[in-house]
Design goal:
It comes from marine metagenome. The protein has 169 residues and is an alpha+beta fold. The protein has five helices and nine strands, in the order E-H-H-E-E-E-H-E-H-E-E-E-E-H. A hairpin with a 2-residue loop joins strand 2 and strand 3. It binds coenzyme A (COA).
Amino acid sequence: MIIRPEKHSDLGSIRSVHTVSFPDTNEARLVDELRTANRLSISLVAVKLHEVVGHVAFSPVIVHGAEGAGLGPVAVLPAYRRIGIGEQLIRKGLEACRKQGDGYVVVLGAPSYYSRFGFKSADSWELCYKNGYADAFQAMELVPGAIPAGGGVVDYAPEFTAVDRSPAG
Ligand SMILES: CC(C)(COP(=O)(O)OP(=O)(O)OC[C@H]1O[C@@H](n2cnc3c(N)ncnc32)[C@H](O)[C@@H]1OP(=O)(O)O)[C@@H](O)C(=O)NCCC(=O)NCCS
């Protein structure tokens, strides 16, 4: 299995991974719209035997002028789950965030899953997501002190609000 940046020829498969993994096509469309708007800052695929079996996206977020990355959506085809592909996608994605200079990353998702990567409740930095989700909203600093003191509301790319979408990891 390899994890690598998306190629143009992967776009249909990326769409399928999200369509199969989520209840509707919102996530698949969101990834397409972020890409079109040039706001898909990191897009990695997991490839097994020439098949795209997983995908993770990151896009820019901002709080009080401090830019970071928002993780999500992430999905793995059902037949390939629970063998660590999601974890590898996320770890490589976080590495790429670090390389591109992001100071922090936020995610909306299950704390029991994301804590293994070092995410903690966003409350710890007084960060919040505008629509609530207090418990599920998490953050991690890649550069100590990158999240401004006093936190604030984290703004995601406008594509997340174009439809009724949450930036779920
Ligand atoms: C979440 C997802 C990407 C994980 O991919 P994966 O390749 O199975 O992940 P890994 O193999 O690295 O890790 C599997 C672990 O994640 C846990 N997990 C998966 N989804 C979870 C969830 N919603 N809440 C808590 N834990 C979860 C599994 O229980 C398993 O735990 P274990 O390691 O203790 O056994 C995959 O389950 C998926 O595509 N789900 C549907 C889309 C989705 O919900 N995306 C993320 C939230 S928006």
